[in-house]
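Thread: FBA_2 domain-containing protein, structure

OP (GT): Posting the sequence first so everyone is looking at the same thing. Length is 139 residues per the record. Can we get the structure tokens written out before standup tomorrow? I want them in the notebook alongside the other entries.
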Amino acid sequence: MDPERISLSDINWPDQDLNVFLRSWQEGKTNRNLKLADLRTNSERDVKEVLKGCGGRLMDPRNTKFKFRDSNKWIYGGIHIRRKDGRLAVIQNNGFYYFDENQVVSRRQVEEYVDRWRKWNSEERSNTWYGEMFIVYIF
């Protein structure tokens, strides 16, 4: 089975299982035709642990945006990872998206980005970035 879309809610996967899912996609072992994965856990997960070893880069929503396929949905920012063949996945866990290429990024989203950037780059456990929504858009 190699679906284009996966949608899972209230899943009990630990950080490590979500990490295996992403890394398996990166290595080209599974889900090669995947275009969208909407993974929602039943409790918060450590985002850095979920993305450990994936080479993720947190992108600024003010200057990074992609139109998702044929929809009228624009993804601003997110965490970018690449599959070994160069294919890009943008991971959102804040639920923000826009309907226009020229929409102004909201003040709230900028504040969340700054807070997440600080946590993403911190080695202190007290600055852990938690999330329970991992929406993976594949470009």
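GT: Both are above now. Quick notes for whoever picks this up: The chain has a mean pLDDT of 93. The two ends are 20 Å apart (CA to CA).
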